[in-house]
Amino acid sequence: MVKTEMLTFKTKGNCDVVNITDEVTRAVGESAVTEGAAILFNVGSTAGITTTEYEPGLAQFDIRAAFERIAPEAGQYEHEKTWEDDNGHSHVRASLLGASLTVPIVDGRLTLGTWQQIILIDFDTRTRTRTVICQIVGE
Amino acid sequence: MVKTEMLTFKTKGNCDVVNITDEVTRAVGESAVTEGAAILFNVGSTAGITTTEYEPGLAQFDIRAAFERIAPEAGQYEHEKTWEDDNGHSHVRASLLGASLTVPIVDGRLTLGTWQQIILIDFDTRTRTRTVICQIVGE
Amino acid sequence: MVKTEMLTFKTKGNCDVVNITDEVTRAVGESAVTEGAAILFNVGSTAGITTTEYEPGLAQFDIRAAFERIAPEAGQYEHEKTWEDDNGHSHVRASLLGASLTVPIVDGRLTLGTWQQIILIDFDTRTRTRTVICQIVGE
């Protein structure tokens, strides 16, 4: 069985870390899948998906600081010369983080750890409405 | 067909790189799947999964040095103020590396390269017993 | 249904960013899958797969600069002492980027954004012929 939902999230940009676990959990619950996986995919090239312990220290500060080391906001980006925009660092960060995450489902539940949440990180420089594909495959 | 196993590994922490290829290969062999994929997922938010050529230089030194540049162990982390613990860098590294990896199966075998092994990297600051979900889907 | 293709790409190495979207799109179109996912996996331990807006600024300069910060080409790598070769940085970068990407298929099409392409990044220090497994699963 394959069941696909388009989830949407309003984001603030600038490394906004959004906890999307509840929406994915709901989609899994509404599907009839008890054993399988949730394939998550961010549509667009300035955001990505991963997991973390969702608490303010990590979500608002520590993750941001690491991406600032990898691709500083104030750096020089050829991408910005191509389009005369300001989000070169957003693209680079998103490519490094990755657009997809696959979480197994066992006994009808996501196999996340107790302190592990699914997050969407929006690296763009403005508010956005993001689409995350949530595709549930299995039996 | 979907077949799910919980694999467990004792880890030493502090960027311990563990070669989990043999356990995944065994699980694939014991399933009846000849064409499909092995979905691997680390349960918990201070470890991740990827591939590398598993040899001591990369596993014990070079990968560790890169994560030290991205999220230094001695850095300041708001996460540590939240919980009064010492593993802020562990969380940041794990989020960047990612919790899931999907490896196709063709003719009953994982499509890894000759010098490519599946590794679990434990970034936590102490010994742990890790659970990796190994879910085999296919025909 | 599971349909697997081995795609091959000639690459130049040294952080060569190759747009593989057309080949994956063709494979999806030739399969009978209308709802499911394309599981992509790079065989080998010195290249990886992700998405980006494929334009020259990002592809030739900005992504490269970020990986140079994470694992500098001129750095010291224990891997190079093990094998007396020169691609320690290539391995570290590939492990960080990751070998697999899963893109959902809806109505027979990949759910990529308008400005989002699938890329293979070859970090090795020489020309290579790369194999990417493109496995299409679904209904």
Write the layout of secondary structure elements.
Three copies of one chain form a homotrimer.
Chain A: E1 2-11, E2 16-19, H1 21-30, E3 36-42, E4 47-52, H2 56-70, H3 78-83, H4 88-97, E5 100-106, E6 109-110, E7 117-122, E8 128-138
Antiparallel strand pairs in A: 1-8, 2-7, 3-5, 3-8, 4-7, 5-6
Question: What does it look like?
Answer:
3 copies of one chain form a homotrimer. By secondary structure, chain A is of the alpha+beta class. The first copy, chain A, has helices at 21-30, 56-70, 78-83, 88-97, and strands spanning 2-11, 16-19, 36-42, 47-52, 100-106, 109-110, 117-122, 128-138. In chain A, the strands form 2 sheets. Chain A has a 5-stranded antiparallel sheet, covered by helices on one side. A 3-stranded antiparallel sheet of chain A has the order 2-7-4, sandwiched between helices. Chain A is elongated. The first copy, chain A, starts with a strand and ends with a strand.
CA-based shape of chain A: elongated
Order of helices and strands of chain A: EEHEEHHHEEEE
Q: Approximately how much helix is present in the residues of chain A?
A: 25-40%
* Unreliable residue stretches of chain A: none
Largest sheet of chain A: 5 strands, antiparallel
Oligomer: homotrimer
Largest interface: A-B, 37 and 31 residues
Task: Please state the average pLDDT score of chain A.
Answer: 97
Keywords, please?
homotrimer, 139 residues, alpha+beta, 5-stranded antiparallel beta sheet, 3-stranded antiparallel beta sheet, 8 strands
